[in-house]
Protein: Histidinol dehydrogenase
Amino acid sequence: MIYRAEEVRERFARRGLSFDPTVEEIVRGILAAVREEGDAALDRFSLDLDGHPVEEIPKKAWRQAYEDLDEELRDALETAKERIEAFYREEAKGGFLKADASGLLGQLVRPLSRVGVYVPGGSAPLLSSLLMSVVPAKVAGVAEVIVASPPKVHPGVLAAAWVAGADRLFAMGGAQAIAALAYGTKRVPRVDKIVGPGNAYVVAAKRQVFGAVGIDGLAGPTETLIVADGSASPRLLAADLLAQAEHGPDSEPWLLSPDRALLEKVEAELFRQLQDLPRGEIARKALERGGLVQTQDLEEAFALANLYAPEHLCLALADPLPWLGRVQNAGGVFLGEGSPEALGDYIAGPSHVMPTSGTARFQGGLALRDFLKVIPVMGLAEGAVRELSRKGALLARAEGLEAHARALDLRS
Ligand SMILES: NC(=O)c1ccc[n+]([C@@H]2O[C@H](COP(=O)([O-])OP(=O)(O)OC[C@H]3O[C@@H](n4cnc5c(N)ncnc54)[C@H](O)[C@@H]3O)[C@@H](O)[C@H]2O)c1
Ligand SMILES: N[C@H](CO)Cc1c[nH]c[nH+]1
Ligand SMILES: [Zn+2]
Structure:
C-alpha cells in the first residue's frame, strides 16, 4: 500500500510516546513490590515473567563465553568496541574555569559513579546494545557499570560484557530489573542513572522511576524513516526496511519518495524478500505499522521526516550531504545507501541507542554527556561581590524574598 503525503501528515504530527494504561498499571505494581519487598519480589517477577530467578553472573563466565566464541565473531566484537570507543573519545568532556576581574566561574564535569545499563533480551539477545551503552559509559569514566539483561542471558551478551569492560551483570529483565537498579535491593546496588533501550514495559518503568534515578531517555521499539530519490536501489531499500521491521511487530519502517515507480518496485521487493526471512511474520506486522509514502518532492519528504522525528533518518539520495541542513529532528542520520542503518546498529561507531516515538524532537542519540554531570563553580572577587550583591538584593526584593536580600545586603 502506497500512501499519499496527506494521508500520513496528521498522524506524523500527532505522534508521541503513548502511555498504554494497562502496561503503566502492571509496571506500577512491579515497581512498588520490588521497592517494598526487595529481592523476594524481584525473584518472584523474574520467575513468573522470565522463568528464572535473578542471578548475578560472575566475570569468569563472561570470559569463558568470550573464549568460546568463534574467532571471527570475537574479532567483530573487538572491532565494534574499538570503533565505538574511538567515536566517543572525540566528544569533548572538559569543563572550564575562567577568571576575570569579577572572580572565578566555571564548570566541573564529573562522570556518574554508578550506571545501570539495560540490555534487551526478550526477543533477541542484543549483544550489540550492550556495547552501545557500556563502551560510552566507560569512555566517560563511569566507575561502576552494572548490566541487566533478561534470563537466560545469551553467551554472546556475556562475551560482549567482557569485551566492553562492564563491572557486574545481573540476569534480570523488564520492569523488575529497572526497579532493582533504581531502588536497590540487598543483591543489586542502587545506581545513579539507568540507560539503554527496551520494550514497552522497560520504557514505562524507566519513565516511572525517573526522579529516584536518572534516565538517558525512553528508547523503545525501533523505527526507521528513509528518504529516497530515483537513484536508490529498490533491493537495498527493501532490505533496509526489513532490517528494522524484524525487530518486532511494533517497529515502524517508513520510506518516503517522490518517485512513484521506485515505491512500486520497493513494494514488490519487500514481498519477494519477505518470503524466506526467518522473522518474516514479525516483519510483515511491522510493515503494516509503517509504509511507503509518495511525496510531491524531496522538500515535502524532509518536512514530513522532521514532523515524524524518526529514530533513524536514512538519506538514500544520490547526493545526500547538501540535504543535511534540512534535518531538524532525528535520532541519527545515515548518509547515502552505502551507509545503511544496520551498520549503525553494529559497528559504525555512534551508539545505536537513539530516541524513538518522536522523542527525537527534544533529544539525540546516546552521548558521552549522558554519563557526565556538569557542576557549576563560583568564586567571586571581593570588589565584584559588593556591586553584584547590591543588584542581587534588588532582584531578591522584587521576588519578595527578604532573607535572600539581607544575606546580600551584608555583602554589599
Ligand atoms: N531505540 C533503540 O535504541 C533500541 C535499541 C535496541 C532495541 N530496541 C528495542 O528494544 C525492544 C526490546 O524488546 P524485547 O521485548 O525484545 O526485550 P526487553 O528485554 O526489553 O523486554 C523483555 C522483558 O519484558 C518483560 N515483559 C514481557 N512481557 C511482559 C508482561 N506481559 N508483563 C510484564 N513484563 C513483561 C519481561 O520481564 C522480559 O524480561 C525492541 O522493541 C527493540 O526494537 C530499541
Ligand atoms: N536497530 C536497533 C535500534 O536502534 C538496534 C539493534 C540491535 N541489534 C540490531 N539492531
Ligand atoms: Zn536494528
The chain is about 45% helix and 20% strand. The two ends are 72 Å apart (CA to CA). The first helix runs from residue 5 to 14.
